[in-house]
Amino acid sequence: MSELGQMLLNLFVLYAAARLAGALFLRLRQPAVVGEILVGLLIGPHALGLLQHSPAIDSFHALFAELGVVFLLFIVGLETDPVSLWRVGRQASLVGTLGVILPFALGYALMQVTGRFSLGESLFVATALTATSVGITARVLADLRALGTVVANVILGAAVFDDILGMLVLAVVSGLTLGALSGSNLALLLAETVAFVLLAVFLGRPAVHRMAPRIAARGLGQDPVFALAVTLCFAFSALAELIGLAAIIGAFFAGIIFAETKEAAPLRRAMQPIYQLLVPIFFVLMGAQVDLHALSTGSLLALGLVVTLLAILGKVIGCGAAALSLGWRNALAIGVGMVPRGEVGIVVASIGLSRGVIGPGIYSIVILMCVLTSLLGPPLLRQALLRGREVPPEAPGDEGRP
Amino acid sequence: MSELGQMLLNLFVLYAAARLAGALFLRLRQPAVVGEILVGLLIGPHALGLLQHSPAIDSFHALFAELGVVFLLFIVGLETDPVSLWRVGRQASLVGTLGVILPFALGYALMQVTGRFSLGESLFVATALTATSVGITARVLADLRALGTVVANVILGAAVFDDILGMLVLAVVSGLTLGALSGSNLALLLAETVAFVLLAVFLGRPAVHRMAPRIAARGLGQDPVFALAVTLCFAFSALAELIGLAAIIGAFFAGIIFAETKEAAPLRRAMQPIYQLLVPIFFVLMGAQVDLHALSTGSLLALGLVVTLLAILGKVIGCGAAALSLGWRNALAIGVGMVPRGEVGIVVASIGLSRGVIGPGIYSIVILMCVLTSLLGPPLLRQALLRGREVPPEAPGDEGRP
User: Fold this and answer.
1) What global pTM score does this model have?
2) The Cα angle at residue B247 between residues B243 and B253, in degrees rounded to 5
3) Which of A90, B73, B118, B381 has its CA 20 to 30 A from that of A67?
4) Which residues of B touch A22 (CB under 8 A)?
């Protein structure tokens, strides 16, 4: 079979599996990303082995997956309006900050006290624990007609804060573990991260804000704002990667720059088909790399469950404590709402694996944690919300909605 | 630099160059595809050499370009409503048929009489000459407010016919030149092509027409018709490649199947961003493979110019003769309108090159022919139309339109 034939056959298998599993899980009221990960595990080389492999094909998978995650983070950035950061206020930023610090500290401490893992492995697990997948929680809030409540507003505001803070942590951690760890190395990475963000804010942002309306008005070429956005996404991703930060950091900040423009709404719409094409394939490929066998060696499965427990406790206690002034029932609901790690934790794991900092065992632990928190978060949040206050029961007969 | 960094840097260079050159050429009232090809030539390894290279990166470029051309042909299929084939009538189908036969015969004869080229090289050049890029002509017709005239209707109808006929020729030729040429081989390929088209028409078409409205109504997952379309595009492309036809044949027929559905209009809109992302990069990569040096060896440049002349004469005489009943001025305008080869000819050349049937010299000749016919076609058509009948002069001040 030609390489092109192998690639197309793989894309067919990956895409059909992704969309079927995603639709099935949505129908079961579960996150699509969990279905995509699990079907990837099923068709991957450690289970059914339905994909063709060759050095060129594997390298194409790796680069294609990276392209998917670059667009994923660009779109996450595009939906992160930094102006809303000022609006969410003290409460949400406190929730977001404590929700990053406590899980990071817990994860790092656990990995280090076992005495079996390198600094890089500990840092990557800790970083994966900082993530919050707000999409999963937002869906639960919408299902329970709880959007617009104080709980929902604090969760959604804190998640924006969490995203940005988590990206900065990842920027430093992904760079740190590439080279030897030292004080000067850490200082350099912090300086690079700060320089990158300042470049984005003080050069990229005004340039885009001046150019976007101008080229939109002049109609240079077809959909010029889309062309500018994709160009900037590639430029920032490449630049971030070249200076040792992860490519997705660049993509994320490129997205944020466009989030504030007037053209953000049509741009979000234009990015949807690209998301639908690339991102499901990314998650299936990530699932295909999970090696359940690796989890059965040593006591990795037990460790994975402890990591998952800390992932839940870290957010519930950290975010809950920060929100105690809203009453303990609201605080509990907010903490539980921040639990699902979803796609962002998986992205962190994929970077650790592709950079060779973590092996298949730790990778599988992080994926396990992301899948379990994404599955457990929604029912826990439903319980916390329904007990905490009167919420209308779910409307019957709406199972047909997307 | 990491492979990921190299890939992202290349994507940045490719995408920025593509969109800038495309916008510039549109502003100069020239086809964007010509700008993309020329800027590819400029940044490619035979000129400035602005792209990073490694075996993994080169293989990624090749597979990524293939993905672009698969979506390009899927979208061409999606815009080819086969029902309109019945409407265009005898005149347009005759124009389309003669416009395929005469250029093919002229190209094949030229390559064979020189006595220097293999059967495969002759067949690929002949096949590239059959193409018509209706997009370029449609833009000229729209500029001259000539859409809706008999000339425009015949050209647009004949181009649909030409597309389908050209794809069938390419299906057979691309398969033929893979194996040894023999009568039984030819019979097998014809049988495979017919079987593939029958499969698409009698299995794929009713299945899609039954499933598409159903999954659209049930709302399975996000944008389920898009998911079905992409899945079918990958499935048909892989199948075509596996049985020895070119992948794009499968993509083209998958597109045609969806062209008739009620969901075709939203699907076309959803495909636009994917087109804008992948297709400009494809053309720049195709331009980067042009080796002007190869043209200077032997008398390849002279041959390229003769091929271009035959490309023009083949369409003008072939299509013109078929339209003589409409008067010679209209016939001339129709023949000239079919001259631009644009993207379809380039796709044929890229398949020949990637399958190793044609070398860089013949590849560069075909690209030269495509660029020249795409540049010369529009002014010739303008002349023919303006002399042939009263056409309102171009409205002033519309240079700002996309």
Assistant:
1) 0.86
2) 95
3) B73
4) 221-222
